[in-house]
TrEMBL record:
Catalyzes the transfer of the diacylglyceryl group from phosphatidylglycerol to the sulfhydryl group of the N-terminal cysteine of a prolipoprotein, the first step in the formation of mature lipoproteins. A 1,2-diacyl-sn-glycero-3-phospho-(1'-sn-glycerol) binds at R144. This is Phosphatidylglycerol--prolipoprotein diacylglyceryl transferase. NCBIfam families: lgt (TIGR00544). GO terms for biological process: lipoprotein biosynthetic process. Pfam families: LGT (PF01790). Keywords: Cell membrane, Lipoprotein, Membrane, Transferase, Transmembrane, Transmembrane helix. The lineage of its organism: Bacteria, Pseudomonadati, Bacteroidota, Cytophagia, Cytophagales. It comes from Fibrisoma limi BUZ 3. Its EC number is 2.5.1.145. It is an enzyme of class 2 (transferase). The chain crosses the membrane at residues 23-43, 55-76, 88-112, 124-143, 182-199, 211-229, 241-261. It comes from the Bacteria.
């Protein structure tokens, strides 16, 4: 039987003077770098302009970071956003909300697809989102591993044999807790490999919007249940029947169901050739 795992990882890899490289930042960047390679492969395979992936990367980085930052303040610290809106873009950039990132990415890809519509490259909103979710799933796994390295977003106390004791998190008692970051990271890795297999097997036969729908249903259904294993992020959530992560996950899952049903209905309505 496994014993409790003592988690005493230094979130900082190394530093030179005041400049430091941290695991979270490295993993965050890796999500974009590896995702760029995957999207380049997809564009080559489907005969899309590979040069467009550079523009797509810019849209993704800006929309992800802005969406995550604005979402954090809007959902968890609205008083800070009202008091000083510039804090969204000012360091130290503490606080990123995955639900905000999801909204930001969808808006960013909508703008990107509108730009591509005038060039008639076939990169519609649903075409792009169905493929970008492959890389977003991988990026989500890396980000949760970064949270693990930071000993943040910890789980509730538990006596399961794989529980972690987060030595470097002074906010909580040094008692065994669910490694909720690891649960979400593993779930995202599973989703990444499934979506990559699904795209590789179906590609143009895939009902438009179905991969986006699968992503939303998988990620946010699990997020809803994982929240029962996690400590609340802010104090006001302690007075809610469902915490903010669960409340925001419900419309995300509903949107995913809509895209899956809509995609399959459109696929069945196409004429047989």
């Amino acid at each position: 039987m496994l014993q409790y795992i003592i988690w005493d990882v230094n979130p900082e890899i190394f530093h030179i003077g005041s400049f430091s490289i941290r695991w979270y930042g490295l993993l965050f960047a890796l999500g974009f770098l590896i995702g760029m390679q995957i999207m380049t492969h997809i564009y080559k395979t489907e005969n899309k302009p590979v040069a467009d992936t550079d523009t797509l990367l810019i849209y993704m980085v800006v929309s992800t970071v802005l969406g995550a930052r604005i979402g954090h303040f809007l959902f968890y610290e609205p008083q800070v956003l009202l008091r000083n809106p510039l804090e969204v873009i000012l360091p130290p950039y503490a606080g990123l909300a995955s639900h905000g990132a999801a909204i930001g990415i969808l808006l960013g890809l909508w703008l990107y697809s509108r730009r591509e519509a005038s060039r008639k490259t076939g990169q519609t909103f649903l075409w792009v989102t169905d493929r970008i979710v492959i890389t977003v799933a991988l990026g989500g796994a890396f980000i949760r591993l970064g949270n693990l390295m930071n000993s943040e977003i910890v789980g509730r106390p538990t006596d399961v044999p794989w529980a972690f004791i987060f030595i470097n998190n002074p906010e909580y008692e040094k008692i065994p807790r669910h490694p909720s970051q690891l649960y979400e990271a593993l779930s995202c890795f599973v989703l990444f490999f499934f979506l990559l297999w699904y795209w590789n097997r179906n590609r143009e036969r895939t009902p438009r919007g179905s991969m986006l729908g699968i992503f939303l249903i998988w990620v946010f259904s699990l997020r809803f249940f994982y929240e029962y294993l996690k400590e609340n992020q802010v104090a006001f959530e302690n007075d809610l029947f469902l915490n903010m992560g669960q409340i925001l996950s419900i419309p995300a899952v509903a949107l995913g169901v809509y895209f899956v049903i809509r995609g399959n209905q459109r696929q069945h309505s196409l004429p047989i050739r």
